[in-house]
Specification:
This protein is α+β, with helices and mostly antiparallel strands. It contains 2 helices and 5 strands; from the N terminus they run E-E-H-E-H-E-E. Strands 3-1-2-4-5 form a 5-stranded mixed sheet. The two termini are 15 Å apart.
Amino acid sequence: MYRIFVKDHFSSAHYLREYKGKCENLHGHNWGVTAEVSAPKLKKAMVMDFSDLKEKLNRVIKPLDHAMLNDLSAFRKTNPTSENIARHIFKELSRLLPRGLRLEEIRISETDNNTASYSRT
Protein backbone atom coordinates (compact mmCIF):
# COMPACT_ATOMS: atom_id res chain seq x y z
CA MET A 1 0.00 0.00 0.00
CA TYR A 2 1.29 3.45 -0.93
CA ARG A 3 0.59 6.42 1.33
CA ILE A 4 0.99 10.17 1.06
CA PHE A 5 0.52 12.87 3.68
CA VAL A 6 -0.22 16.58 3.37
CA LYS A 7 -0.40 19.19 6.09
CA ASP A 8 -2.32 22.42 6.38
CA HIS A 9 -3.66 24.64 9.14
CA PHE A 10 -6.50 26.93 10.14
CA SER A 11 -7.39 29.18 13.05
CA SER A 12 -10.73 29.18 14.81
CA ALA A 13 -12.52 29.66 18.10
CA HIS A 14 -14.74 27.28 20.02
CA TYR A 15 -15.97 26.30 23.44
CA LEU A 16 -16.88 22.87 24.73
CA ARG A 17 -20.42 22.20 25.87
CA GLU A 18 -21.17 20.00 28.87
CA TYR A 19 -17.56 20.21 29.97
CA LYS A 20 -16.32 21.43 33.32
CA GLY A 21 -12.97 23.13 33.00
CA LYS A 22 -11.28 26.02 31.28
CA CYS A 23 -12.21 24.73 27.80
CA GLU A 24 -15.89 25.43 28.49
CA ASN A 25 -14.94 29.08 27.97
CA LEU A 26 -14.54 30.63 24.54
CA HIS A 27 -10.98 30.16 23.29
CA GLY A 28 -9.09 29.64 20.03
CA HIS A 29 -6.46 27.48 18.42
CA ASN A 30 -4.15 27.48 15.46
CA TRP A 31 -5.07 23.97 14.35
CA GLY A 32 -2.68 21.78 12.41
CA VAL A 33 -4.20 19.20 10.06
CA THR A 34 -2.53 16.17 8.46
CA ALA A 35 -4.34 14.06 5.89
CA GLU A 36 -3.16 10.55 4.98
CA VAL A 37 -4.30 9.00 1.69
CA SER A 38 -3.47 5.53 0.38
CA ALA A 39 -3.71 3.58 -2.85
CA PRO A 40 -2.92 -0.07 -3.63
CA LYS A 41 -1.15 0.92 -6.84
CA LEU A 42 0.34 4.04 -8.33
CA LYS A 43 -1.25 6.03 -11.09
CA LYS A 44 1.31 7.91 -13.20
CA ALA A 45 3.97 6.96 -10.60
CA MET A 46 2.11 8.55 -7.64
CA VAL A 47 -0.84 8.08 -5.31
CA MET A 48 -2.03 11.54 -6.36
CA ASP A 49 -0.41 14.91 -6.85
CA PHE A 50 0.38 16.49 -3.48
CA SER A 51 -0.95 19.86 -4.66
CA ASP A 52 -4.28 18.27 -5.68
CA LEU A 53 -4.68 16.69 -2.27
CA LYS A 54 -3.69 19.91 -0.52
CA GLU A 55 -6.25 21.84 -2.62
CA LYS A 56 -8.99 19.40 -1.62
CA LEU A 57 -8.01 19.58 2.05
CA ASN A 58 -7.99 23.38 1.83
CA ARG A 59 -11.55 23.34 0.40
CA VAL A 60 -12.67 21.39 3.47
CA ILE A 61 -10.92 23.50 6.10
CA LYS A 62 -11.53 26.92 4.51
CA PRO A 63 -15.02 27.24 6.06
CA LEU A 64 -13.47 26.47 9.48
CA ASP A 65 -10.78 29.14 9.20
CA HIS A 66 -11.37 32.22 11.36
CA ALA A 67 -14.79 30.87 12.31
CA MET A 68 -16.62 30.32 15.55
CA LEU A 69 -16.95 26.53 15.25
CA ASN A 70 -19.96 26.26 17.57
CA ASP A 71 -21.93 28.47 15.14
CA LEU A 72 -21.30 26.22 12.10
CA SER A 73 -24.03 23.75 11.14
CA ALA A 74 -21.61 20.81 11.57
CA PHE A 75 -21.13 21.69 15.24
CA ARG A 76 -24.45 23.11 16.35
CA LYS A 77 -25.40 19.77 17.90
CA THR A 78 -21.98 18.09 17.89
CA ASN A 79 -19.45 19.32 20.42
CA PRO A 80 -16.49 20.85 18.52
CA THR A 81 -13.83 18.77 20.26
CA SER A 82 -10.59 17.95 18.45
CA GLU A 83 -11.90 14.43 17.88
CA ASN A 84 -15.14 15.64 16.29
CA ILE A 85 -13.35 18.22 14.16
CA ALA A 86 -11.07 15.45 12.86
CA ARG A 87 -14.12 13.30 12.06
CA HIS A 88 -15.82 16.20 10.25
CA ILE A 89 -12.75 16.86 8.11
CA PHE A 90 -12.40 13.13 7.40
CA LYS A 91 -15.98 12.82 6.17
CA GLU A 92 -15.84 15.94 4.02
CA LEU A 93 -12.45 15.14 2.47
CA SER A 94 -13.46 11.53 1.77
CA ARG A 95 -16.19 12.81 -0.56
CA LEU A 96 -13.68 14.76 -2.65
CA LEU A 97 -11.14 12.02 -3.35
CA PRO A 98 -11.00 10.29 -6.75
CA ARG A 99 -12.11 6.67 -7.01
CA GLY A 100 -9.46 4.16 -6.01
CA LEU A 101 -7.97 6.39 -3.31
CA ARG A 102 -8.66 5.87 0.34
CA LEU A 103 -8.51 8.45 3.10
CA GLU A 104 -6.82 6.64 5.97
CA GLU A 105 -6.62 9.24 8.70
CA ILE A 106 -7.02 12.87 9.65
CA ARG A 107 -4.80 14.08 12.47
CA ILE A 108 -5.60 17.43 14.05
CA SER A 109 -3.46 19.23 16.60
CA GLU A 110 -4.62 22.08 18.77
CA THR A 111 -1.09 22.54 20.13
CA ASP A 112 2.29 20.97 19.40
CA ASN A 113 1.64 18.54 22.24
CA ASN A 114 -2.06 17.70 21.81
CA THR A 115 -3.26 15.74 18.79
CA ALA A 116 -6.43 13.80 17.98
CA SER A 117 -7.20 11.65 14.97
CA TYR A 118 -10.06 10.02 13.14
CA SER A 119 -9.45 7.05 10.88
CA ARG A 120 -11.19 4.21 9.11
CA THR A 121 -9.92 1.66 11.62
